[in-house]
Amino acid sequence: MNMAVGMNGIRTAGDLVMRMQMNGMKLADAKKYVGDKLGGLDPFELADEYIMKEVREELGFGTINAVPGAIKGIQAKANIAKTLDIEIPCVDVLYNR
Questions:
Q1: Do residues 61 and 79 make contact, with C-beta atoms less than 8 angstroms apart?
Q2: 76-83: long-range contacts (C-beta < 8 A, 24 or more apart)?
Q3: φ, ψ for residue 6, nearest 5 deg
Q4: Contact 5, 19 (CB under 8 A)
Q5: pLDDT tens digits, residue range 31-65?
Q6: In the chain, where the domains are located
Q7: Of 3, 27, 33, 81, which has the fewest CB atoms closer than 10 Å, so is most exposed?
Q8: Cα separation of 95 and 46, whole Å?
Q9: Tell me, what DSSP letter sits at residue 7?
Q10: Residue 25, by phi and psi: left (phi above 0), alpha (psi -120 to 50) or beta?
């Protein structure tokens, strides 16, 4: 299946690619954009759970498993918004209070 959610969501980069698709990008363009923003990762690396676990922890994007002291929740969304250069409504509400 050729859908971003087929990339395992938060286990890999599926949620990030899906955000870009929701902003109007085609799947291939969304994967390239996210890969470039994450340091030049290719689509196979974006779908690799081991690589993406390290990337997500390093960038503070949150992970599927709880990691003591790791960023989660709205802070993770804020990091995603900043890195991907997109607006996320709940993050905007938080910072515009």
A1: yes
A2: 80/16, 80/19, 83/37, 83/38, 83/59
A3: -70, -5
A4: no
A5: 999 999 999 999 999 999 999 989 999 999 988 77
A6: 4-95
A7: 3
A8: 29
A9: G
A10: beta
